[in-house]
Design goal:
Chain lengths: 238, 139
């Protein structure tokens, strides 16, 4: 296929919309998109099996920018690093700011800079675990790129997915982003220490999450004060 | 880190003896010591899975994935849609579009100036404008 069309398909894949494809390449775009999704699922299955074979418990943490994913992970790792050997994989567009923060709490970290991609995918994780001796770890946390949209396209093969939102994003954040809540196991509403000051309706956030996914566990936390971090760790079955 | 790099460069200089050499072991040692250096490249935002070490003036095209365990020498150019892992690319190298290299070494001043190569466990050297003209040895 000519390079120009290849580029066009790449661009359309990036914006994840087949509606942009002109008639002549529409079939090709749809097939490519389906194949990419299938490949991701296959790789996620392999990732999961590798974790399982090595008795590793694994968690994918998704959430909006600034919701407190890294802060929560700092608290979790701080509490668990004396009991477990922990690997944290951090996804960001650029920099290793998050990995540096978490590393201070005695976990090994690997940073993935995704460049123009807005989510980690199973291939990224597969590449990492193929280069690691997994016998050296008990827990793997994967902190996804901060946003509430793209990570829903790519499962990573972890045991559990946590979605983190916070009181600063307003009480509509949950109902406006149902996809990730549908495919997560635990919904964390963070920055609960700011609830009164901001007047955020946390009960609405919680009931919205349950409406979208009746099986989801909902917990309110404050990574700043440490409130409910122990409870969250219990929910993660650790 | 530089110590292994110098040894590997010497070893690939004896192209006919590569299969008998200990390049693979040296690469393992080298990658264990490899840190990150990402700030000096020219180009768009690629995907990096650390560790990735870029010497000065590396040029990177669109939709490139580098890592884990990648070293790119000074003044080298990585074109669009390239994926490289567990690989050493020496100075002043050109990697063509849509290459996928895994566990490879690309010799200094090599110009792999063609499209579409998917290879593993190889040493690649020389100036080639097509796959047929590529000089390669299995590791």
């Amino acid at each position: 296929m000519p390079l120009k069309e290849n580029k066009e398909i790449e661009r359309i894949k990036e914006v994840e919309s087949i509606n942009l494809a002109r008639a002549e390449i529409r079939d090709e775009v749809i097939e490519t998109k389906k194949a990419v999704e299938k490949d991701n699922e296959l790789l996620a299955t392999r990732v999961h099996q590798k974790f399982k074979d090595n008795n590793i418990k694994s968690f994918d943490i998704v959430g909006a920018i600034g919701a407190g994913k890294t802060a929560l992970l700092e608290k979790i790792v701080e509490k668990l690093s004396s009991q477990y050997r922990i690997l944290v994989i951090c996804g960001d567009i650029t920099t290793r700011v998050d990995a540096d923060r978490i590393e201070k709490h005695k976990a090994e970290t690997i940073q993935i800079n995704t460049g123009r991609e807005c989510a980690l995918n199973a291939y990224h994780i597969y590449k990492i675990i193929n280069n690691k001796d997994l016998e050296n770890y008990d827990l793997v946390f994967i902190e996804n790129v901060g946003n509430l949209i793209c990570p829903s396209e790519f499962i990573l093969g972890t045991d559990m997915r946590l979605i983190v939102v916070s009181t600063t994003e307003g009480e509509w954040v949950v109902e406006k982003h149902p996809m990730l809540f549908r495919m997560s196991d635990i919904a964390v509403i963070n920055k609960i220490d700011l609830k009164e000051r901001l007047g955020t309706d946390v009960e609405k956030m919680s009931s919205d999450a349950k409406k979208i996914n009746p099986k989801i566990e909902v917990i309110t936390t404050s990574a700043k004060t440490g409130e409910n971090i122990e409870k969250l760790i219990n929910l993660m079955e650790l | 880190m530089k110590e292994e790099l110098i040894k590997i460069e010497e070893l690939i200089g004896n192209f006919d003896d590569i299969e008998k050499s200990n390049i693979k072991e040296l690469m393992q040692i080298f990658f264990k010591k490899l840190g990150n250096r990402l700030e000096n490249y020219v180009g768009d935002y690629p995907t990096f899975i650390e560790p990735v070490y870029l010497e000065d003036n590396v040029k990177i095209g669109d939709d490139v994935l580098l890592g884990p365990n990648v070293y790119i020498g000074a003044n080298s150019e990585i074109q669009d849609y390239v994926e490289i892992s567990n690989t050493i690319v020496f100075d002043n190298v050109k990697i063509g579009q849509n290459f996928k290299l895994e566990n490879c070494v690309v010799g200094k001043d090599s110009s792999l100036n063609f499209k579409n190569l998917n290879t593993k466990n190889s040493v690649l050297v020389g100036v080639a404008d097509s796959k047929d003209k590529l000089q390669s040895k299995k590791l």
